[in-house]
Write a structure and sequence with these properties.
alpha/beta, 434 Repressor (Amino-terminal Domain), Endonuclease, Chain A, 51% helix
């Protein structure tokens, strides 16, 4: 039987596989033995061990359960999260950590509905195109969708953050997936607007050159009232903590809100679009 030698230093995924094989063999288990414990096939175990398949959250948690590492400081789930961060835009994992603790979140988005407001179907439709282009694997796509759900759940914590969202009109006009997917996404936006801790507005095309922001940006207010801003380029995300740069973004955001449609006007616009797509 051929045995593929592993180089755990070659990548986080290879390190995961090498640790999995070492832990399994330390118990005297064959791949079939571990597979029976986890509810996976031995072929799946082999693929993860040799780095041919990316582990998922479900796989990692099942592995912790089978190997007795659940609840320890060095779980396979923790190692999986490090791998997942490697498939995300540089700087984004750090931002998500602060987003989950922020007292106030101010978000401006262009082109697509932001992740914290996406339905699973909308997120899946966007992710499917990314997978087709070969930018990520199907497993990484599923983890991105799961991360969006985790971020949404963090917005319902107690006490909940104040969340202000301004969507460029292009977010509403760009079709993603089927008309049914868009209708459900619009319905979720209306539900979001009805929450007591949220404000939803649209920056219409008619604003023209009065629009103070042209690129997506997020400004966070932390519980200690410190500010930070997050913005992305095509290659990486950047978290800015220097108030010299953050305050102008906050000012521009307030100016954007003043020019944008009111929440009532925004909901009316969304409902009008919904009537036209089905």
């Amino acid at each position: 039987m051929n045995r593929k030698e592993l180089n755990p230093d070659s990548s986080p995924q290879a390190a995961f596989g090498a640790r999995l094989r070492s832990s399994r063999e330390a118990r005297g288990w064959k791949q079939e033995d571990l597979a029976a414990q986890m509810g996976y096939s031995s072929t799946h175990i082999s693929a993860v061990e040799t780095g041919r398949k990316v582990p998922t959250l479900r796989f990692s948690r099942s592995l912790d359960q089978a190997l007795g590492t659940r609840g320890t400081v060095d779980t396979f789930e923790r190692q999986w999260r490090e791998i997942r961060q490697g498939s995300l835009l540089e700087g984004f994992p750090e931002y998500v950590t602060f987003e989950g603790r922020a007292a106030e979140i101010r978000l401006y988005e262009v082109g697509v509905i932001p992740g914290v407001l996406q339905t699973r179907e909308y997120a899946a439709a966007l992710t499917a195109r990314t997978i087709e282009r070969g930018a990520i694997t199907a497993e990484q796509g599923e983890e991105r969708i799961a991360l969006a759900a985790e971020r949404q759940a963090s917005l319902t914590r107690t006490p909940p953050p104040l969340v202000s969202v301004v969507l460029d009109e292009s977010c509403l006009m760009r079709p993603v997936g089927s008309p049914e997917i868009m209708d459900r996404q619009f319905a979720q936006l209306v539900e979001f607007a009805a929450l007591p801790n949220t404000v939803l507005q649209v920056a219409p095309f008619s604003m023209g050159d009065r629009r103070p922001l042209s690129l997506p940006v997020t400004v966070l207010t932390m519980p200690d009232r410190s500010l930070m801003a997050y913005a992305e380029s095509a290659q990486r995300g950047h978290l800015e903590r220097d108030n010299t740069f953050v305050m102008p973004m906050m000012t521009a955001y307030h100016q954007l809100q003043a020019e944008a449609c009111s929440q009532a006007e925004t909901v009316a616009m969304i409902n009008k679009i919904r009537k036209g797509i089905l």
